[in-house]
Specification:
single chain, alpha/beta, FAD/NAD(P)-binding domain, 2 domains, seven-stranded mixed sheet, five-stranded parallel sheet, about 25% strand, binds flavin-adenine dinucleotide, NAD(P)/FAD-dependent oxidoreductase, oxidoreductase
């Protein structure tokens, strides 16, 4: 059977697209391997009507809503190979060798963060260390915070974090990444910059307590932000050849269309910052509508109305 659309990635972007397509009676399969990006955190913030919801609860509600529509199917699997066929359809191969053929493909596989190897960072990430102040700044307001990062993005992040707490210390872990003017700006705001390499983060089940430096000092902090590297969770660039945006993710137009005919992307996969659940869901919704519109036009011209 040729499906109308396969969606690789069932996070908010993919699921909202599936909701639109299911309501439009499209035959859709969501392929998802169950590894959402925010699974490390206990609460999600900033999604109107769902502020402070647990990520697992959000996902449960979303799947219940989407799978009410009988033409939508969910396969728990990893999609590991994708190609575009000569007739414009897409062949999606799952890890177990199972294949799906679809007229349209939506990639909403998200991104993943590559965290610093400093001991304790992974344990604290999602519990007391985060990457996005819009997501978690409110919960850390007025606390003694660390901003940890070894590249130039640390300046912007620290300015941002300072709006939630004035007690901020920057840790560059041995890197010299701040210009002299930036250092004096930070000094004016009372933000200390510590360049000494970090030995480890002392924490209690992920709750940051101290940043322990290699010179033996321990600085008390109860939470903070890090500057991870972000990479696409799945990349099908080699076989599909879509254009990439300036951040290295899938380039889309304002409607979620990629440079490859019939291929769409939304959410973190087409990341161009800031990365948020509600934004991913909104982009997914738009892509779903665009995919339905494209399918409708194709079918309209293929099957003229009987006279
Ligand atoms: C610690 C942390 C806290 C956050 N807090 C918030 C917050 O409070 N508020 C907020 O708005 N945002 C928050 N975010 C950001 C938010 O999680 C993302 O912006 C959002 O999840 C993006 O949605 P998405 O649908 O694009 O991708 P995702 O939610 O990452 O979903 C992608 C899905 O695709 C699946 N997948 C990937 N590759 C494949 C493949 N090859 N085959 C099958 N399935 C695949 C994944 O397993 C995943 O289920 C947080 C992120 C992190 C890391």
């Amino acid at each position: 059977m040729v499906l109308d659309c396969v969606i690789i990635g069932g996070g908010p972007a993919g699921l909202n697209a599936a909701l639109v397509l299911g309501r439009a009676r499209r035959k859709v399969v969501i392929v998802d391997d169950g590894q959402p990006r925010n699974r490390v955190t206990h609460e999600s913030h900033g999604y109107l009507t769902r502020d402070r919801i647990k990520p697992a609860e959000f996902r449960k509600i979303a799947y219940e809503e989407v799978l009410r529509y009988p033409s939508v199917q969910h396969i728990v699997a990893l999609a590991n190979k994708v190609e575009r066929l000569d007739n414009g359809h897409f062949r999606i191969e799952l890890q177990d060798g199972h294949q799906l053929i679809a007229r349209k493909l939506l990639i909403t596989a998200g991104i993943k963060e590559v965290l610093s190897s400093i001991q304790g960072v992974t344990d604290c990430y999602g519990k007391s260390l985060f990457n996005c102040p819009f997501c978690d700044g409110w919960e850390l307001r007025d606390q003694p915070l660390a901003v940890i990062g070894a590249d130039s993005r640390i300046m912007h992040l620290s300015k941002m974090v300072h709006t939630w707490s004035e007690d901020v210390i920057i840790f560059t872990n041995g890197a010299s990444v701040l210009e002299p003017e930036q250092q004096s700006e930070l000094q004016d705001k009372g933000i200390e910059v510590i360049t000494t390499p970090i030995a480890k983060l002392q924490h209690d089940e992920g709750k940051l307590q101290q940043v322990v430096l290699l010179d033996g000092r321990s600085i008390e902090r109860s939470g903070g932000f890090v500057v991870p590297q972000f990479v696409p969770k799945a990349t099908f660039h080699d076989t599909l050849g879509y254009d990439l945006n300036e951040h290295g993710y899938i380039q889309v137009d304002s409607m979620g269309r990629t440079s490859v005919d019939g291929l769409y992307s939304a959410g973190d996969s087409a990341f161009n910052g800031p990365s948020q659940l509600i934004r991913a869901a909104a982009e997914g919704s738009l892509s779903g509508a665009m995919i339905h519109g494209a399918l409708m036009e194709e079918d309209w011209s293929r099957h003229p109305t009987a006279q």
